[in-house]
Inverse folding.
């Protein structure tokens, strides 16, 4: 790259890679910033009448339950708390900042600021979940309305918003499967769940946690499991199929309805993991494919922020045949009033506190209401168009491939392979990703195990422009060029991030060395700091 | 000439028609429709989704949602004494400021380099929790305290190879439902009887039930009903004698005045972070923590992510990363421990901000303040004829049971009367704990001043009359 900034700008309509450098504050760990006596917040003093009226509160506490020594928390002024966290925030690449197409499967999209403001208003934040129903009619109506929207979008009959994210929704559906078979006296016999290797790890892990054995199907040359493999996997022991479609390859399984039919004929239920629904809105639904259950991640497809890893909402839906098993309570409408229904004896009970992450439900509702039917379809169409355009551009880079379904269109994402480049140059997909970070973007390889060698998963949602996609492709091209011409730059990346590469993995693997808290670090490595 | 509205949606840059056509031309597709050719015709939705007409202007959208929210009556407009797992504490402005920063709010799952900030913030969160709890291992938050409890119990079962857990009988019924659901079909959860006068665990009964099958003994301090579990050290001794793990759920805001459970023998400590800087949000502010000693046999059982500190290739620089990643479902799918996924990281960062603001002195002060205010409130309420408070004869923190049997009125009637007068009364316990008669669980925190409490007492007197 030249040192002339004009080369890093779009001066001639062509994308260039920008001269990015992330904030690097060398910010100490909070404990190192402590000043004895400093205060970050002062509290109201207890009025004398209250203190007197309360009597000897300390004396009432049994000796063994009294704190003996104060917690060794840092002591900081508010000024320094704010400065510290602002610095850390600058050392974090939020979606607001970057062309966030590199976090494939995560559906990074614009999180509208108006929705955030609404969710932060007192009408939302200052509600206790156990308030009398008459005092929470507004939020209950939002739950009810959002359920109606998702019923139409999926074609299923009921939804719960209790799960706190996608995996908890998958788990909820696994519990419904268990309860359904138990209601028919088949719980003991039907103890197997069939899934696919390109479905999210939680489809397997949540089913296992709910007590099922897991059978995992692998793809054929076309990237999809064969219908024969499904037939071979199902039996009188089959409890359910848990499957993503499109899987993380972005290839839509055109025989999905046959998969469902095979499982239904064997007496099993079918759960549609719709984490990858962004290219499907208004196009195809769980209902048409015959599924009994599905889930959406409101923090992915429905525009609510990911929060550095939650809170989100995993909206879990089912057909009317399974409705009686949904978590407690459901939101019901009676005339123009809304109420909570706890009188559901077949319910699986609670999967999360109260009614789930209400502000995220509010934000998702506002997102759908901003778009409507045509807007949702435009989201799906644009996400798919963007993905196919990025695919077209990325495949021009020597050394990268899109395994399976060669020449075919993908839906909303693609799992690529750098196998050829890596074999030629000795770099790895990890090296490529860490070098990509130097240009101000995220990059993600794949869930484990790596079925696709040296994988990279890109998901350009509707939130990115042609110029954005061109820039991302240009970054990958630059990194691939470097892999051939100066591989050491990749192997030692990142160079422009807040911190440099970790080379000693014993700190993550060796019980004598790992430190999950500062106190553990001081105990194990005190002299080194 | 009237301005014509553009068709391009503000959230969708490439919805500009000329750009769409340009992209199609580049990839050689005749139409957007052609991109969906892999979806069979019989699976296609052949109509427009039947959804309400969109509110395309931000102004109209805001007005619509604000109108819906205006139909709520908030705890700011009313005087609230509800707790029972979700608490009205003061939320420092800095907490909202930091968790509203787009850099944190809109981030997700980047690497510990370009997302160094959230890794450090969550490591610091865990480190400060570690100081409050006096434990060396704290997870990146799970969904909520209910999930943390259920997972803590499963961890204990995996460690011991046993499948029975004994639970303090005053556990909240939502938490019990969660545990029963989550522990199926592998684990049997038994409720221990409690002392009807004090509420505490019946130690003799515990001793008789403990056996080589018991994986864990679980109790809360403070309990769901607010009282302190006076026999905590004895429970831990009994559990350990039987080879079981002692699992304790704690309210972290109490730890400036109350001993951390590790001090009286707890092996696995769990709870909810919501009191530490999260608004109630109709139950949307929850996040769960799990803490243990730094022993490999515990660490290997966590399903959650654990962020560890490490040197980088630059001397003196701190980096972060996943500790013992190979135990997780991210690494091993169904062979991992339970599962891991998106949970409540933003609330973990926020709780960290809260702890940094409060410091040791802040925790001591708020703990004492809550002890004083709640005890004052209980005493004031107890003066009312026919009202007994606290109904359980044990010291308590923040919450206490109020019994109305002597008033001849039901909790439902009393709460209806309070609501008419702008007060949200305590949680009605009659469905959960029939043996407690007409009782409610009242919650008093640092947000309640003398006038608030006196108003509660005066209004209650009026309502029960």
């Amino acid at each position: 790259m030249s040192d002339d900034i004009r080369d890093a700008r779009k001066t001639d309509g062509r994308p260039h890679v920008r001269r990015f450098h992330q904030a690097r504050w060398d910010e100490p760990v909070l404990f190192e910033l402590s000043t004895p006596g400093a205060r970050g917040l002062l509290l109201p003093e207890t009025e004398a009448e209250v203190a007197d009226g309360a009597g000897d509160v300390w004396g009432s506490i049994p000796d063994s339950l009294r704190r003996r020594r104060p917690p060794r928390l840092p002591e900081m002024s508010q000024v320094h708390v704010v400065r510290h966290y602002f610095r850390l925030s600058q050392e974090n690449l939020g979606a607001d900042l970057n062309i966030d197409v590199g976090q494939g499967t995560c559906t990074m999209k614009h999180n509208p600021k108006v929705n955030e403001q609404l969710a932060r208003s007192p009408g939302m934040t200052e509600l206790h979940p156990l308030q009398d129903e008459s005092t929470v009619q507004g939020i209950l109506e939002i739950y009810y309305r959002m359920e109606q929207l998702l019923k139409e979008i999926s074609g299923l009959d009921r939804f719960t918003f209790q799960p706190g994210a996608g995996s908890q929704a998958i788990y909820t559906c696994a519990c419904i499967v268990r309860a359904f078979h138990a209601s028919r006296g088949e719980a003991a016999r039907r103890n197997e769940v069939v899934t696919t290797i390109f479905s999210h790890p939680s489809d397997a892990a949540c089913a296992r946690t709910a007590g099922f054995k897991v059978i995992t199907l692998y793809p054929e040359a076309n990237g999809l499991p064969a219908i024969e493999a499904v037939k071979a996997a199902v039996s009188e022991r089959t409890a359910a199929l848990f499957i993503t479609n499109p899987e993380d390859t972005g290839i839509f399984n055109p025989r999905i309805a046959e998969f469902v039919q095979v499982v239904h004929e064997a007496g099993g239920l079918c759960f549609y993991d719709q984490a990858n629904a962004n290219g499907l809105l208004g196009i195809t639904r769980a209902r048409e494919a015959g599924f009994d259950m599905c889930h959406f991640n409101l923090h992915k497809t429905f525009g609510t922020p990911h929060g550095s890893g939650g809170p989100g909402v995993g909206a879990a839906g089912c057909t009317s045949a399974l409705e009686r098993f949904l978590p407690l309570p459901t939101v019901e409408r009676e005339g123009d009033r809304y109420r909570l229904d706890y009188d559901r004896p077949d319910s699986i009970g609670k999967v999360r506190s109260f009614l789930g992450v209400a502000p995220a439900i509010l934000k998702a509702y506002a997102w759908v209401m901003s778009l409507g039917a045509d807007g949702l379809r435009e989201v799906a169409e644009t996400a798919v168009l963007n993905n196919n355009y990025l695919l077209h551009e990325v495949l021009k880079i020597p050394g990268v491939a899109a395994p399976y379904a060669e020449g075919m269109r993908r839906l909303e994402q693609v799992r690529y392979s750098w196998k050829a480049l890596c074999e030629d140059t000795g770099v790895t997909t990890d090296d490529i990703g860490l070098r990509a970070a130097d240009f101000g973007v995220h990059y993600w390889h794949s869930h484990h195990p790596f079925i696709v060698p040296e994988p990279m998963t890109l998901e350009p949602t509707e939130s990115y422009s042609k110029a954005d996609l061109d820039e991302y492709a240009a970054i990958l091209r630059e990194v691939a060029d470097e892999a051939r011409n100066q591989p050491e730059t990749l192997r030692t990346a990142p160079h422009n991030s807040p911190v440099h590469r970790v080379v000693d993995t014993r700190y993550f693997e060796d019980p004598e060395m790992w430190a999950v808290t500062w106190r553990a670090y001081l105990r194990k490595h005190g002299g080194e700091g | 000439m009237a301005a014509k509205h553009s068709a391009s949606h503000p959230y969708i840059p490439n919805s500009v028609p000329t750009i769409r056509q340009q992209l199609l031309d580049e990839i050689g597709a005749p139409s957007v429709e052609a991109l969906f050719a892999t979806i069979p015709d019989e699976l296609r939705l052949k109509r427009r989704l039947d959804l309400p007409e969109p509110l395309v202007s931000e102004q109209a959208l805001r007005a619509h949602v604000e109108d819906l929210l205006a139909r709520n009556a908030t705890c700011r407009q009313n005087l609230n004494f509800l707790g029972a797992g979700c608490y009205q504490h003061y939320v420092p402005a800095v907490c909202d400021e930091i968790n509203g920063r787009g850099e944190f709010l809109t981030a997700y799952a980047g690497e510990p380099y370009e997302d160094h900030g959230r890794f450090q913030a969550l490591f610091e969160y865990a480190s400060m929790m570690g100081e409050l709890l006096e434990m060396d291992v704290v997870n990146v938050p799970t969904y909520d305290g209910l999930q943390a409890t259920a997972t803590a119990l499963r961890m204990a079962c995996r460690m011991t190879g046993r499948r029975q857990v004994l639970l303090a009988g005053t556990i909240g019924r939502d938490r019990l439902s969660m545990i029963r659901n989550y522990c199926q079909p592998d684990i049997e959860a038994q409720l221990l009887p409690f002392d009807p006068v004090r509420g505490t665990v019946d130690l003799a009964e515990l001793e008789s039930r403990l056996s080589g099958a018991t994986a864990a003994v679980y109790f809360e301090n403070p309990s769901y009903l607010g009282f302190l579990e006076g026999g905590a050290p004895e429970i831990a001794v009994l559990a350990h004698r039987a080879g079981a793990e002692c699992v304790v759920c704690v309210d972290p805001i109490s730890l400036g005045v109350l001993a951390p459970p590790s001090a009286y023998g707890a092996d696995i400590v769990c709870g909810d972070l919501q009191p530490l800087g999260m608004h109630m949000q109709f139950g949307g502010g929850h996040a769960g923590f799990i803490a243990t000693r730094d022993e490999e046999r515990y660490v290997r059982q966590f399903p959650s992510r654990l962020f560890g500190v490490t040197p980088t290739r630059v001397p003196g620089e701190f980096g972060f990363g996943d500790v013992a990643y190979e135990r997780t479902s991210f690494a091993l799918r169904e062979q991992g421990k339970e599962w891991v996924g998106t949970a409540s990281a933003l609330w973990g960062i926020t709780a960290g901000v809260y702890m940094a603001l409060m410091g040791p002195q802040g925790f001591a002060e708020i703990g004492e303040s809550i002890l004083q205010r709640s005890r004052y409130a209980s005493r004031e309420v107890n003066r009312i004829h026919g009202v007994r408070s606290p109904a359980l004869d044990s010291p308590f923190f923040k919450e206490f049971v109020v019994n109305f049997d002597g008033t001849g009125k039901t909790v439902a009637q009393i709460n209806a009367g309070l609501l008419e007068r702008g007060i949200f009364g305590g949680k009605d316990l009659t469905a959960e704990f029939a043996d407690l008669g007409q009782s409610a669980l009242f919650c008093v925190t640092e947000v309640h001043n003398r006038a608030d409490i006196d108003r509660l007492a005066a209004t209650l007197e009026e309502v029960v009359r």
